[in-house]
Design brief:
Shape: globular
Distance between the termini: 65 Å
CATH superfamily of one domain: MetI-like
CATH class of one domain: Mainly Alpha
Helix content: 55-70%
Number of helices: 33
Number of strands: 12
Structural class: alpha/beta
Largest sheet: 6 strands, mixed
């Protein structure tokens, strides 16, 4: 297989070289060249020289080996300092680093793995490890580690190794780690009588209540601690510290529905009920930690550097502490591993780089450069690491850490837990109901792992679906009313197929085949387990569609989408028409300037638009809250309020999109003859009468076109909720396309995602059909 793939890669290169040489020989063979013997001989010698140079391998190819490394985030800016020193120690290896933004890394990795073109070495987040391991993407490293003289697994924190070990097999080597600890103001806690951060949860709660009483006595709007309210990792921390977990030891059964989990979540929810921590409070000031209005919070090691850099006013007034103890002091461990892929081409040289970056001295140097915590315990003996007293809590915590369940469905479980916690925080469900919901949904997700169907059965079902589609198309074209226009009445010439073939080929590859394939996929269970292994894809009939009809999130997304269209379409059309009429008036100056201004948001990237509107909606400094505050109303958390978030996104979408419709309306208005309006004025028609009896009737077809297109655009709204709210809060801004995206490209439930797509297609087709019927009725 490997030789076959190498031939596939090399063959086009050889073919191009032969074609080039053939063109030279073609020139040589011409009589004009050979009439001059000297010229012919010279050309022959030149051709031989070119042939030798084309097929000769560069002299340096065997001396230097290039390995490709993918790195993400800030690490990609610093890694070259490490790889440069590696190249000096290994002169025969050249490291080529490719920087990838975190936001794009997941999709790029999936594409590279499915296409069998992954990098040689890759930085991979610990929470992504189970997903890619489920796909079978990694190269097992046990033999590499066994033969290594540098890597000693006993030198690493056990929690760091857990993120790369599955069923006793290592698929990565820890590169850097992080965990969660408490940051606190030493001066404020000392003033309250706590010179040492409490080491137990009971002592921690006592401290919070004492701090809250002090704030209330002083009449200050403040909270003792900023606690993560809807974070899945902290939810796991609560479970671990109370002696329970989400899944069993084999990661096959959900065990969270137990009294310990319910009790832990109930106690934690009570902290917010007592106002010991803020949740969705627009009145809490910025930099509350620095101002002493929220003197405790939970974060990772990166905040140590951020505090020194961005909060000099509290220098020497803060410190860190490990998690308080319940039954234990467990915390979540994160970070990144270095991995090889099964399809990596330079595995031997790539592992040498991983070995180098695992050395204690190199990891200590990496901490100096990037401030990422080393997973190798020996690196903590270097002065650059142990000399920082604020890292002591992290070292203690790293000895008592755990990882999320190593299952490929973790992304889906993460969203499920966060959603249930969010509902609990908004008082939609109780802690008991939240645990029950998490347990039931988790069991449903894990139950979709069964695979048992023969290849023949799959082929037969696929063929049957294609046959039914072909029959449906045949009946449609056979039974539809005959066309009576001049072109359609002509006899079809078979030779026309030759002219249509190129266009039909392109459309088949990029349109027809994907449409049919996605329709077939909607009848399968295609999920993360089948991304690289087609044998795990099975046909399940209409199960995806029946599940869709019982999915409350889908119906909430559909409701949100229809509301978005119901509000957005009239606003968009009215604003576009009003602006077009105004700019079509003769007395308006600088028309081109205003047209450009109104149209500019249409062509502006949505990321830039989102930045503007996030600032406008900002709770503390946004102009909208400043304006309503001046009118005597309290500020609103526009994007975190379940009733205000969707209207806020609608207004932003209308602002961005109405300029396009305005330009179409302007073109339609300019096609109306001025003589009609002059005649109406002579007859005494007012401006309002002219609008209703001349303008609207004359642009009726344009309005219909704009209405259909705008409705279609609103029904597949995606970018607005995706960038602004992610579908929250409480799925109040979740759209159908965003929900489809989550299942397709976040959870990799491709079968269910395809079913959502065709359900939306059916709804959009029905609405469009209704629009055409109504338009004919009013003609």
């Amino acid at each position: 297989m490997k030789n076959y793939k190498s031939y596939v890669i090399i063959a086009p290169m050889i073919l191009r070289r032969f074609m080039f040489l053939f063109s030279i020989f073609k020139v040589i063979a011409s009589p004009r060249i050979f009439r001059a013997p000297r010229i012919g001989a010279a050309v022959v010698m030149l051709t031989i020289t070119l042939a030798l140079s084309f097929f000769a391998r560069p002299a340096t190819a065997s001396d230097t080996v290039e390995i490709k490394v993918w790195s993400m985030g800030m690490e990609s800016e610093y890694i070259k300092q490490i790889t440069d020193s590696f190249e000096k120690e290994n002169p025969g290896i050249k490291v080529i680093n490719q920087a990838i933004p975190w936001g794009e890394a997941h999709e790029k990795l999936i594409t590279a793995i499915v296409g069998n073109v992954p990098p040689d070495v890759c930085q991979l987040g610990t929470t992504w490890m189970p997903e890619f391991q489920t796909m079978g993407a990694f190269e097992p490293l046990n033999e590499y580690i066994k033969n290594s003289r540098i890597i000693n697994l006993e030198d690493f924190f056990e929690g760091a190794l857990l993120s790369s070990r599955y069923d006793g097999i290592y698929y990565g080597i820890p590169w850097y780690v992080d965990t969660r600890v408490f940051y606190y103001r030493t001066d404020i806690l000392a003033a309250a009588g706590f010179n040492i951060f409490p080491q137990t949860w009971s002592g921690f709660l006592e401290m919070l209540r004492k701090l809250k009483a002090g704030y209330q006595k002083a009449g200050i709007h403040a909270y003792p601690a900023f606690l993560p309210a809807t974070d899945s990792f902290f939810f796991l921390t609560l479970l671990w510290q109370n002696g329970t977990d989400l899944l069993d030891a084999e990661n096959k059964k959900c065990i969270v529905d137990n009294p310990a989990a319910v009790g832990a979540l109930t106690e934690y929810a009570a902290l917010f009920d007592e106002k010991l921590g803020p949740f969705n409070d627009p009145l809490l000031e910025e930099k509350a930690f620095e101002k002493g209005l929220c003197p405790i919070f939970i974060s990772g090691p990166w905040t140590v550097t951020d505090m020194d850099k961005y909060s000099p006013e509290v220098k020497g007034k803060w410190s860190t502490a490990k998690m308080p103890k319940k039954l234990n002091s467990a915390s979540f461990i994160g970070g990144c591993n270095l991995v090889l892929f099964r399809e990596s081409r330079r595995k031997k040289e790539a592992f040498r780089l991983i070995e180098y970056m695992s050395r204690p001295d190199v990891q200590a140097e990496w901490y100096r450069i990037s401030r990422d915590l080393p997973p190798n315990r020996l690196a903590w003996n270097y002065e650059v690491v142990f000399s920082n007293p604020r890292l002591t809590a992290f070292k203690e915590q790293l000895s008592e850490t755990r990882t999320p369940p190593p299952v490929g469905e973790w992304a889906q479980l993460d969203s499920l837990i966060c959603g249930a916690l969010e509902e609990m925080m908004y008082k939609k469900i109780t802690p008991r109901e939240a645990i029950t919901k998490i347990a039931k949904k988790t069991s449903d997700i894990l139950a979709s792992r069964d695979f048992n169907q023969t290849s023949f059965y799959k082929f037969a079902v696929s063929s049957f679906i294609c046959f039914m589609i072909a029959c449906g198309l045949f009946l449609y074209f056979k039974t539809r009313a005959p066309q009576t226009d001049r072109i359609s009445s002509k006899r079809f010439n078979p030779a026309a197929w030759l002219l249509l073939a190129p266009a039909l080929s392109v459309m088949s590859v990029f349109l027809f085949v994907p449409i049919v394939s996605s329709f077939i996929i909607s009848f399968t269970n295609w999920n993360i387990y089948g991304v690289r292994d087609a044998g795990k894809i099975i046909f399940i009939g209409f199960e995806n569609y029946s599940k869709l009809l019982a999915d409350p999130i889908f119906f909430r997304a559909l409701f949100n989408t229809l509301v978005y269209a119901f509000i957005g379409v009239p606003l968009n059309i009215m604003l576009a028409l009003g602006a077009a009429i105004l700019l079509n008036q003769g007395f308006v100056k600088f028309k081109s300037f205003f047209r450009l201004g109104f149209f500019l948001p249409v062509i502006t990237t949505f990321v830039a638009v989102a930045l503007i509107w996030r600032w406008l909606y900002d709770t503390a400094n946004g102009p909208i809250n400043w304006a309503i505050g001046g009118a005597g109303f309290p500020p609103q958390n526009w994007l975190m309020n379940e009733y205000l978030a969707l209207p806020a996104i609608v207004f932003m979408g209308v602002w961005k999109g109405f300029g396009y419709n305005m330009m179409i309306f302007i073109a339609a208005l300019q096609s109306i003859s001025d003589e009609i309006y002059e005649a109406a004025e002579i007859d005494g028609a007012s401006s309002v009468q002219q609008f209703f009896y001349i303008t609207l009737p004359m642009i009726k077809k344009t309005t219909f076109f704009i209405t259909v297109m705008t409705v279609t655009g609103c029904l597949h709204v995606f970018a607005e909720p995706y960038i602004m709210t992610g579908g929250g809060p409480l799925t109040s801004t979740m759209s159908v396309v965003l929900y489809m995206y989550h299942h397709g490209f976040k959870y990799y439930n491709l079968g269910y995602s395809s079913a959502i797509a065709y359900a939306l297609f059916a709804i959009m087709s029905a609405i469009t059909f209704l629009q055409f019927k109504l338009s004919k009725k009013f003609e």
